[in-house]
Specification:
The protein is of the alpha/beta class. The chain is built from 14 helices and 11 strands. Helix 7 packs across helix 8.
């Protein structure tokens, strides 16, 4: 039988080869197109300024952003300007005001550090550039197919509007000189605070750590049968059903807090300072590596130890986004892509730098790249990697505003 006759008898095989050939052409075309598009970003993004609006309340984080500025200056001749915010909503308000004024192309915010409620608000009002983050060359290093959280912000699909920058979880830390057995659940925390009055507090909302503690408490206090409601847009009915347990808990807790719950610190930095001054024995952070980093810098005593609550740790990923009217969109993309590089992510995770956990999937990196993330001698104040604390997903972002408003109504005037 000739080859031609054989193929005539094999229509399924011909179809298979045709599909494979088409797939190969599609892949080649797609790869070439992506490379061409990124080259355009490289050509247009260099030699400009980027105005990066990001929280500026931590000297360690500020120093890391300055390192980023040095790197992108060397690689792309980009002048990175860190616009330090006390609250991300400041940048949201600026972009919204620009849109109202008809400024649709020369916005003053090129890149913004964002997640949660602020992302949901900007996405809702069409204030973010769509469908760009997944096209960054380094985005593939997050292995999004295996890690869907890289495309979800508090459960809300990012739709390519955000590029992941770091991930964290609510972590508690204590002074082992003052405490031998720290509380491991919310119930134990209440009991412990009764026995150790004035040795614990949390930052006043809308501080991120303060609100995170309230969300952790709300999830822990909500019966499992009702927790699904926390991951849906808040309604008056659901808030009336679920929030009273939180206020009852806080009514009992507050008299046991620092200054009897009559005054609250304004930030996690102030909270850490109280721990450093040994006014408090127990505190929390949203980045576990931040604790040993602070001990190394002598901002905290060497007796500090980290741990995770056994009833769960509130967890999320934080992102960067480009406003829809950014003046230097391509420059912002170059910066965001560098933020996802192995070099930038490894440096950011080092306790002496920042201690923010990487969003890269180390399992797909080369061996020499993985070694950049490894610490040969873990710090005594570090969180144990096998803590086995259940990850508590962030509630729907609409709950944040309701929690903040009702907290301020009940306790803000104190």
């Amino acid at each position: 039988m000739t080859t031609s006759n054989y193929l005539l008898l094999q229509p399924k095989r011909i179809k298979h080869y045709a599909l494979v050939f088409i797939a190969m052409l599609s892949f080649i075309f797609s790869s070439n197109s992506a490379a061409k598009n990124w080259q355009t970003v490289l050509d247009n993004g260099q030699n400009h300024s980027v105005y990066f609006h990001a929280w500026g309340g931590d000297p360690q984080i500020n120093a890391y952003i300055q390192w980023l500025a040095q790197q992108v200056k060397q690689q792309y001749n980009i002048d990175l300007h860190h616009i330090k915010l006390t609250d991300t909503s400041e940048a949201v308000s600026r972009v919204l005001a620009e849109k109202s004024a008809g400024n649709h192309s020369e916005g003053k915010v090129d890149l913004i550090w964002i997640n949660g409620a602020n992302f949901a608000a900007m996405a809702k009002h069409g204030l973010l550039t769509p469908n760009w983050a997944t096209k960054l060359p380094n985005f593939s290093l997050t292995n999004p197919a295996k890690n869907p959280a890289m495309s979800l912000d508090f459960g809300v699909p990012t739709q390519g509007m955000e590029s992941p920058w770091g991930q964290a979880a609510l972590t508690f830390y204590y002074d082992s000189v003052a405490i031998t057995s720290p509380p491991k659940t919310l119930t134990q925390l209440l009991t412990w605070s009764t026995q150790h009055k004035g040795r614990f507090t949390y930052p006043k909302p809308p501080d991120f750590i303060g609100v995170s503690f309230l969300k952790y408490a709300l999830i822990s206090l909500t019966p499992a049968s009702l927790q699904a409601k926390l991951y849906q847009p808040v309604t008056k009915q659901n808030s009336t059903l679920l929030l009273p347990k939180l206020w009852q808990f806080l009514d009992t807790l507050h008299p046991n807090l620092w200054r009897a719950g009559q005054h609250f610190v304004s930030s996690s930095t102030a909270l850490r300072r109280l721990m450093g001054d040994t006014e408090l024995s127990l505190a929390m952070t949203f980045s576990a590596p931040e604790v040993p980093a602070a001990v190394t810098r002598f901002d905290l005593p060497t007796s500090i130890r980290s741990y995770a609550m056994s009833d769960g740790s509130l967890s999320n990923i934080h992102f960067v986004a480009i406003p829809y009217n950014a003046a230097h969109t391509d420059s912002a993309k170059l910066l965001a892509n560098f933020m996802l590089s192995v070099n930038a992510q490894a440096k950011k995770q080092r306790p002496t730098t920042w201690g923010d956990n990487t969003v890269l999937d180390l399992s797909i990196l080369a061996a020499d790249q993985v070694t950049q993330f490894q610490l040969s001698n873990p710090h005594p104040s570090s969180l144990a990697p096998n803590h086995n604390s259940p990850a508590l997903a962030e509630p729907h972002p609409s709950w944040v505003k309701v929690i903040e408003q009702q907290w301020l109504e009940r306790y803000g005037a104190q």
